[in-house]
Amino acid sequence: xxxxxxxxxxxxxxxxxxxxxxxxxxxxxxxxxxxxxxxxxxxxxxxxxxxxxxxxxxxxxxxxxxxxxxxxxxxxxxxxxxxxxxxxxxxxxxxxxxxxxxxxxxxxxxxxxxxxxxxxxxxxxxxxxxxxxxxxxxxxxxxxxxxxxxxxxxxxxxxxxxxxxxxxxxxxxxxxxxxxxxxxxxxxxxxxxxxxxxxxxxxxxxxxxxxxxxxxxxxxxxxxxxxxxxxxxxxxxxxxxxxxxxxxxxxxxxxxxxxxxxxxxxxxxxxxxxxxxxxxxxxxxxxxxxxxxxxxxxxxxxxxxxxxxxxxxxxxxxxxxxxxxxxxxxxxxxxxxxxxxxxxxxxxxxxxxxxxxxxxxxxxxxxxxxxxxxxxxxxxxxxxxxxxxxxxxxxxxxxxxxxxxxxxxxxxxxxxxxxxxxxxxxxxxxxxxxxxxxxxxxxxxxxxxxxxxxxxxxxxxxxxxxxxxxxxxxxxxxxxxxxxxxxxxxxxxxxxxxxxxxxxxxxxxxxxxxxxxxxxxxxxxxxxxxxxxxxxxxxxxxxxxxxxxxxxxxxxxxxxxxxxxxxxxxxxxxxxxxxxxxxxxxxxxxxxxxxxxxxxxxxxxxxxxxxxxxxxxxxxxxxxxxxxxxxxxxxxxxxxxxxxxxxxxxxxxxxxxxxxxxxxxxxxxxxxxxxxxxxxxxxxxxxxxxxxxxxxxxxxxxxxxxxxxxxxxxxxxxxxxxxxxxxxxx
Length: 730
Prior knowledge:
Number of domains: 4
Number of helices: 31
Structural class: alpha/beta
Strand order of the largest sheet: 10-9-8-11-12-14-13
Radius of gyration: 42 Å
CATH architecture of the largest domain: 3-Layer(aba) Sandwich
Low-confidence stretches: 447-464
Strand content: 5-15%
Oligomer: single chain
CATH topology of the largest domain: Rossmann fold
CATH superfamily of the largest domain: Vaccinia Virus protein VP39
Number of strands: 14
Shape: elongated
Helix content: 40-55%
Largest sheet: 7 strands, mixed
């Protein structure tokens, strides 16, 4: 460098902005970033030992990224080369590489290449530079305001150590300002400047951790102020406010600040903190974020985080977004605020995530066969049975009927779990009750189908309609007279009908339940998880119905309740005797039993004119004998015979009621096939097989065809009789 070049450089440094002139020259002069530059820290030790590898400095503007790179070059006596990733091309990179090689050859010094905005490096620039970084020709120091793990080329990140620089504290910015006022060589130490304390605090605060912004404001204040009669420049608060009027909001709509701020906004609303939500939204609006982007995020939030706890939230936000489109800014900020406050203060529920559980099942399980009743009946429905047996919910009370909607292998699978928040709390019980009734109906139907049709015509008499199941549940629950702390046992609980209701009503004791199979236990364990009060269902597997399976010797129940428990036992009073040790002295039993012997006769489903009188009379007589067959434990009893049996066994009947029901029921073709199976080698006896003792094969075939042609596909009034009883020991 000749004399003229030296003088020119000196003049440039003298006329440079204050922020550039006041750049620290050594680590000791550097203010802030103590988390990486304090004595003993890794970066400081590496600089002092001159053992640096490539570095990337990541942080907001004005935190010292470029300055720190210059300090490293000065401290290590390295040649400092600088390029900008946006403004410099491959030719500039090659020129820097040649300079670095020359310095290394002629002066035995290494070179530091500082790349500003390194996240803007393209592949061609990277390919031109990387080989020389790897062989040590240059030490790369990159600077970026973006998260390098997301924005900087992966090849550069993998070869560099990353240090994050943080915004300076107000006290640190004040220290930098004071250095500028006292430094005679580079700052305003040769001038008499009186910076008021409140002006100092204002400059430091409004700069927002950006030392460059603070020094630029100070320089503007000093250069535009007039000295007083004592030749002193008075920098008052008013002057400082004019010099740096508005605090810049650090916000890049494509950078970290954008994603961090919207994340803070969403999490504040999710945490029901309206103050924080308003603050973060205000920061986005002030930084120029598109309000429609904010509305889109709030629309997502209304479905994801508020959801069914307040279904109106989606409408409120949607209306606010529409109003904003009509009104625009600045008045549209009212609608932004209203939507934000509504979501922040609304009850929260993320139950809509149930959809993603369903997606997971669809992707991972082969269980997509649509049940026949749900298939489209308009196309080939008659030929394939599509749509047959579908129960139209609007034809039933409360516009609901228990029928199967999920594929068989998924029956009992729970996706949607209503929370106890807001509106969802009001529907939680109804959803659970309907779900339990559907499960009970499915278990009843499955049990009959698995038996090969032997008791299907009886199981249908046991009835699996939602209306009757709800009636059963409500009646048994009422007669059980349970309180919050009743110790109760539910027998034959596999269908889940009673267990769910008891768990909702008993909040201070666990509810015990006996099921017949481990599969039933698994399904109920999924359906009835621990309640919010900590109460849970204690479920044991025992087909005999003995509470000893719980392995609690001194367990004494105040209520033992069940549906269709006694009808499975030939010696009904004898079964009750086995339960006596498990009932407390003041406890009692409550049972609800369907009475097949008094229920629907299949012969009554056929119109009068379609059967010869003598044939109908013979058919009715055969049905009566079949039902009263003593070998048929399920149907060979009546309420009167059971009452006599219990009284003879010295049981005290507290309450006794026989109820009759007529339930609209769709008779499906597959049900006819179960009553009259084509194969006669079933291990169980079907309705048709039972009748074979009374009728010829030709007569049975004609009867079967009559059922198929005249009964299948029709809705009938199905007659059902139920017995409810409340018992205790004498």
